[in-house]
Amino acid sequence: MKNLSCFKTYDIRGEINVNIDEEIVYRISRATSQHFAAKSVVVGFDARKTSPTYASAATKAIRDSGSDVINIGLAGTEEMYWAVSEFKACAGIIITASHNPINYNGMKIVKSGSQPLCVENDLKAIKRLSEKDKFESEKMRGKFINSSVEARSAYTERVLGFIDLNALKPLKIVVNSGNGAAGPTFDAIANRLSAADAPLDFIRINHTPDPTFPNGIPNPLLPKNHLATAKVVKEVEADFGIAFDGDFDRCFFFDEKGRFVKGEFIIGLLAEIFLKREVGARIVHDPRVVWNIQNIVDRKNGVAVQSKTGHAFIKQTMRKNQAIYGGEMSAHHYFRDFAYCDSGMIPWLLIAELVSKTGVTLATLIEKQFTLFPSSGETNFYVENAKESTDRVLAAYRKKAISIDNTDGVSLVFNDWRLNLRSSNTEPILRLNVEGRGNANFIQAKVTNIARIIGGKIA
Questions:
Q1: Cα 392 from chain centroid?
Q2: How far is 75 from 184, CA to CA, in rounded Å?
Q3: I need a surface site. Which of 32, 294, 400, 447 has the fewest CB within 10 A?
């Protein structure tokens, strides 16, 4: 029995030819098909060099297990999610390592209804089957069904169904696909918008999928990657800019001045949009930065529900509460009417509609909330011992705190500021977020003080 170290908390990630390769992908895919006794499994892949080969290995495994493969080809993670629901498949697999380094790849898997895998009953069971590498023999081989055109068409109609196309006004939008998988899918949406005479002008950069990632790994959350989008936004005087990660399940925004918009402010805008559509609806958020979101949800007569960070937890909390929308400050946005899944395309469509309807710029839309609830952005620290570093912070601040919350890591609340400190699930990293009420300079001072206590190197 071979231990497979590519299994992580929520999905599968590994270094190519170290702890993930074609044979491992074959075993995991076959185990997935067998575990769900699947009649059909959706398979797609991202723009990485090994992804088409790994997808072929997954396809062979699924067919060897007697299950049909519904192939969607080069696609984003959210396209796989929607295809599973659209075609009523028993499971879905997309080969992707999202924003990981170029020498990595992985797999994201969902079950019927586009539901995330239960860690104990599904993910660990698939891991055990994969490691045992002894599968049931099947007399009948599964079929290969090429549904790439139908899947993208259905997906495009679904995401466009979130907005009123007739409400769109002339806007100039910069789109940075990071040479990941987003380009072709974005073009399909743009073509549909053009056919509906939507007056949107797109300026595309780094648009063509390229497995060499000549402009760097597409991870727009990193400050060093902001300039590429911000520069073009200012040069062309765009209304706003957007940038996608490798599998485009995350969408990042830049206002008309080229400034990066922090995730919690986009969550606030989207929450307000949905609370206008459905009064009293529930909005799910993660625990890292919360005051801006809770303020908006409360003012708009919604119900804010806090969830542990991570797509499996957010989706579970949304389903349990029948929440209309959920957001993480890391730019994952989840929608009840998108099978409770996250999408990187739906958010920019909603913001385009909002800017069109209000006639107000993105910077102005967030200005008041940004002033009321400044935040630090996430600071990551490499540490030798995450628990010891966390304990030092607690020792320094616990007695002064009004409340302590352990939903995800530890959150300490004070009169005019709040911190969340949580460990990475996969690396020796502590992630710090600080937010406050009305004093941005005060926030940076707190980050500096806490950084000294943590004692690690900033990642």
A1: 31
A2: 8
A3: 400
CB atoms under 10 Å from CB of 125, counted, come to 18
Q: DSSP assignment, residue 150? A: H
Cα first-last separation, the chain: 36
Domains of the chain by range and CATH?
12-147 (3.40.120.10), 379-458 (3.30.310.50)
Q: Among residues 269, 412, 455, 343, which one has the least CA distance to residue 82?
A: 343
How is 152-178 classified by DSSP, letter by letter?
HHHHHHHHHTTS-GGG---EEEEEE-T
pLDDT at 1: 57
Helix-then-strand count for the chain, H and E = 14, 23
Percent of the chain with pLDDT over 90: 92
Is 273 exposed, middle or buried (CB count within 10 Å of its CB: 0-12, 13-18, 19+)?
buried
Q: What is the pLDDT of residue 427?
A: 72
Residue 412 has pLDDT above 90, yes or no: yes
* Backbone conformation region of residue 107, classed left if phi is above 0, alpha if psi is from -120 to 50, else beta: beta
Q: CA–CA separation, 191 vs 338, rounded Å?
A: 21
Model confidence pLDDT, tens digit, residues 327-344: 999 999 999 999 999 999
List beta partners, residue 106.
13
Residue 98 falls in the annotated catalytic set: yes
Q: Which DSSP helix (H) or strand (E) runs through 149? A: helix 148-160
Q: Which two tokens mark 90? A: 């028993």
| pTM, entire model | 0.95
Least confident of 87-96, 115-124, 276-285, 435-444: 435-444
Q: What's the residue count for the chain?
A: 459
The pLDDT tens digits for 18-52 are 999 999 999 999 999 999 999 999 999 999 999 99
Region 267-288: mean pLDDT is 97
- DSSP annotation string for 398-433: GGG-SEEE-SSSEEEE-SSEEEEEEE-SSSSEEEEE
DSSP state of 121: I
Q: Which of 65, 98, 147, 343 is catalytic?
A: 98
The pLDDT, as a whole number, for residue 426 is 64
Do 283 and 271 meet the contact criterion of CB atoms below 8 Å apart?
yes
Which residues neighbour 128 within 8 Å (Cβ) at sequence distance 6 or greater?
none
For helices 22-35 and 124-132, the axis angle rounded to 10 degrees is: 120
Q: How far apart, in whole angstroms, are the C-alpha atoms of residue 119 and residue 125?
A: 8
**CA proximity to 352, closest of 178, 173, 184:** 173
Give the largest Cα separation in the chain, rounded.
Answer: 68
